[in-house]
Each structure stands twice: as structure tokens, then as C-alpha cells.
Design brief:
CATH superfamily: Aldolase class I
Number of domains: 1
Structural class: alpha/beta
Distance between the termini: 55 Å
Largest sheet: 7 strands, mixed
Radius of gyration: 20 Å
């Protein structure tokens, strides 16, 4: 098999670490402008280090890169470690080898009460999973253990394939599946998340998982100011989530790392040119929106959950800041007169 031609014979410094492993990866499939490569990895379980107060301690990503090509994706930086571009993140997908065996060796590092999140920097049920089944192999390993807390995040209805296995895992462990849905508007979702399954398919996956005895909810993340954050749009989502019998719904606002902005801002210029100046102003100096925006979003979602009877039986993904009181019908107001709010 041909290897990925990343290393010219001269003129560049020698690659080390993950970049060297990526360069040695074998090409195993190509199609639809997507290339798949093997990746020999020394570890599968990663301790999470973040300033975002995340609810999990450990992360598992069965693949490196993601074919769904979401315009806002924050994880594009992971390909920079392999000396690749932000766009390579959605075009060159690396399949981690011997994942289940690595997990078996590493689970002893996890202490009681430390949650393991699957799919933090790549979708574990992206199209590659149909062929390579790395995620399924990982889940089969979890089924041999007990006492773990496991969360899965995905945009794909392929997760329903593993409903029986997930239910089996849940007999000896705590497990919860979150489907990410940013909007119920299929046309908008298609431009935001070009290769991800339609929102209605994800909602149906939530319904089917819960019917199968696997607890499943929805994460609306990221909420995009001026695009998906109107009360009308968010209420449409919460109403659909309630109809699908989801166990929970949470929403978190956009944060825009430089690697994400390199793709997202040109996308804005094409699809939402009237928002470009406001986004540049807000994100020029920082990746996060002001805390007040998150508080207002949290307050609005709390009202909508009450209105539509979604009781959030799984609270680990809730916004961690005490929400400010907002008047009924108030807009989130990202681009209001006080930029420092």
C-alpha cells in the first residue's frame, strides 16, 4: 500500500511524534475526495486538559479528523500536530489501530467517578466507522468491564447500529448518548454541517435509542450568534427534542479557535456576509463569547425545557455558570451596544 506523501526528500525538518506516525500511515481507502490512513498510536485514553470546565476527565477519539466537515469545528487544530492544514482535518481521516487492546491496558488509570467521553475531537460514528468499526471495537471492550461512566457524542444516526451493545454496557456501567443538533432547519444544517446526517435522522436516532433502553439526549452546540440563536429557532429544536422523547437537552455557545476561524470566517463571508464584522469584533482577541451571553442562553433553554416538558435526567453537560434572569422573549443580544458585556 502507498504511504501518505508528506515528507519531501529535503528542505524540511524531520518530523517527530504524532506527525511522524501520521507520515508513516498507510493509505487504506480513498473516495469522495476523502483519504483514509492507518495511524499507529501509543495511547487511546487521553486525560482532558481544558479551561472550559468540561464534565469529563478522559477522552477517547477512535479516529483523527472528521469527514462531516462542520464549518465551526473546534477540533481542526488536532491535524496541526501532524503538520497538516485545517482543511486536511476533513479530507485525511486517520484510523487508530489496535484501539480495543490499548483501551484494555489503559482503563486501570480511570478512577471511580471519572467520566470517559467518546467523540470529543472527532465523530465516533462518521462514515469511516461503517467500514472500520473502531468505535464498535471500543464499545465491545467496555462491555467486558463494569463501574465506568461513559458518554458518547455524535451527529450520526449510525449509533443506532450499536443499540444492543450500548444497552449491554449499561447493565454494568453508566452510559449516556448525546446527539449533537444545532438546528432543525435541514437547509441550514446542510451548509453548516455539509456531510453530517440530517437533523430529523438524528432526532429519530434519539427516539430509537431510548426505545431500546439506551438513555439518549441532545446537545445543541455550538449555538451560533445571529444564525441559530433566536428564541424561535431554539424553541423549535426543544419542541422537536421533546417529541423525540429525549432525556435531556443542553446548549453551549460557539467558541472560535484560530484554526476554526480560518474555515468559519470565509464561510460567513459567503453565506452570512452581514455578520462578518460583528464576529471579527467579538472573536479577534479571544475564542470565547462573554459570560453574559452564556448565561442568557442558559436561562432561555431552562424556560424552554420547562415549557416543553424536557426534564434533563442527565445534568453533566449543563452550563456551569449560574444563569442571569432574562425577560420572556428577550433576544440573546450578542451584537448589542455593549461589546464588553
Amino acid at each position: 500500500m502507498a504511504t501518505l506523501p508528506l515528507l519531501p526528500d529535503s528542505g524540511k525538518p524531520r518530523l517527530i511524534g504524532i506527525a511522524r506516525l501520521a507520515a508513516q500511515g498507510e493509505s487504506i481507502r480513498e473516495g469522495h475526495n476523502i483519504e483514509y490512513f492507518t495511524l499507529q498510536t501509543r495511547s487511546l485514553l487521553s486525560r482532558v486538559v481544558s479551561n472550559r470546565n468540561l464534565p469529563f476527565t478522559w477522552a477517547i477519539n477512535p479516529y483523527r479528523g472528521c469527514e462531516f466537515a462542520c464549518k465551526y469545528c473546534y477540533a481542526r487544530y488536532t491535524h496541526e500536530f501532524m503538520e497538516m492544514s485545517d482543511l486536511d482535518f476533513e479530507r485525511k481521516i486517520f484510523v487508530k489501530q489496535h484501539a480495543a487492546g490499548l483501551l484494555r491496558q489503559e482503563l486501570k488509570r480511570v478512577k471511580k467517578g471519572e467520566e470517559i467521553a467518546i467523540g470529543t475531537a472527532t465523530d465516533p460514528y462518521q462514515p469511516a466507522e461503517r467500514r472500520y468499526e473502531i468505535t464498535r471495537a471500543i464499545l465491545e471492550e467496555f462491555a467486558r468491564h463494569r463501574g465506568f461512566e461513559i458518554g458518547i457524542v455524535t451527529k450520526s444516526n449510525l449509533v443506532v447500529r450499536d443499540a444492543a451493545l450500548l444497552r449491554e454496557i449499561g447493565q454494568q456501567n453508566k452510559i449516556f448518548v448525546n446527539l449533537t443538533i444545532t438546528t432543525v432547519n435541514a437547509d441550514l444544517a446542510r451548509i453548516l454541517e455539509p456531510r453530517a446526517p440530517r437533523p430529523d435522522l438524528r432526532l429519530e436516532a434519539v427516539r430509537q435509542l431510548n426505545l431500546a433502553g439506551v438513555s439518549a439526549g441532545v446537545i445543541c452546540a455550538p449555538v451560533l450568534p445571529g444564525i441559530t440563536d433566536t428564541p424561535r429557532d431554539l424553541e423549535a429544536l426543544v419542541a422537536a427534542v421533546a417529541k423525540a422523547s429525549a432525556k435531556s437537552i443542553h446548549a453551549n455557545p460557539l467558541f472560535l479557535k484560530p484554526c476554526s476561524a480560518s474555515v468559519f470566517l470565509p464561510f460567513l463571508e459567503k453565506e452570512f456576509p452581514h455578520l462578518v464584522a460583528s464576529y471579527r469584533e467579538r472573536f479577534e482577541q479571544r475564542a470565547f463569547l462573554p459570560p453574559a451571553y452564556g448565561k442568557r442562553l442558559s436561562q432561555l433553554m431552562a424556560r424552554l425545557r420547562v415549557k416543553h416538558g424536557v426534564h434533563n435526567s442527565y445534568e453533566r453537560y449543563a452550563w456551569r455558570v449560574q444563569p442571569a434572569v432574562a425577560e420572556e422573549g428577550e433576544q440573546l443580544g450578542l451584537f448589542g451596544p455593549n461589546p464588553a458585556a
